[in-house]
Amino acid sequence: MLVLVLEYYFVAVVTVAELPSGILSDRLGRKTTLHIAFLGFASSLLLTALASCKLIAPGTVASTSTTTPISISISTTMPFLLWGCLGLAQFARAIGSSMYSGTDMAFLYEVIRKYNNNSNNNSNAVANSMLLSIESRNVFYTTLTEASAAAVGGWLSGAVGLPVVVALAAVPFLLGAVVALFFLESTGAATASASASASAS
Fold first, then answer.
1. Model's pTM, two decimal places?
2. Which of 29, 76, 92, 117 falls between 20 and 30 A from 148, CA-CA?
3. Which of 33-47, 68-82, 88-102, 134-148 has the lowest average pLDDT?
4. Which of 71, 46, 75 lies closest to 61, judged by CA?
5. In 3D, which of 181, 45, 29, 34 has the Cα closest to residue 100?
6. Quick one: pLDDT band at residue 37, thresholds 50, 70, 90?
């Protein structure tokens, strides 16, 4: 029941946040928007890990091959603070998802156009072709990484506990937030080039 309530809440927040996310991406810039998205994902995982420490009874995770079932207490008497922690986790996840959605592809598209001469009449076709190629490879490597991480995560959860694994999952997003700070915005250059081309015509 708890999982369903949290998922409904997540979907509701995403639905609302998706509406202004495109406008915010244009106003704040792709770099800042992606930075916020990565921080949202990382915060969600860290808050979930914190809540999991209270949900999972201590001493129930086995360190040998003979496993003991993990005891999870999900009752109506769950402290308000714990509900708030899980709610904040889903809110941060929803913000991260809405901010990331479409922004990554928009950023790549602008970078591709910038380095393939915006003034070229075929720049749109070239950019779309390259973007499709990059996205195809991205899907392949993402699926491969997730499959590998799932296998390792299952083993780690039995060795160090589920909360630790969830917290470790935030590390790639924290690294992404740091890397995003070094992105070079190309929106301004693209807009200036487009304006110059329009004036010349």
1. 0.74
2. 92
3. 68-82
4. 71
5. 34
6. very high
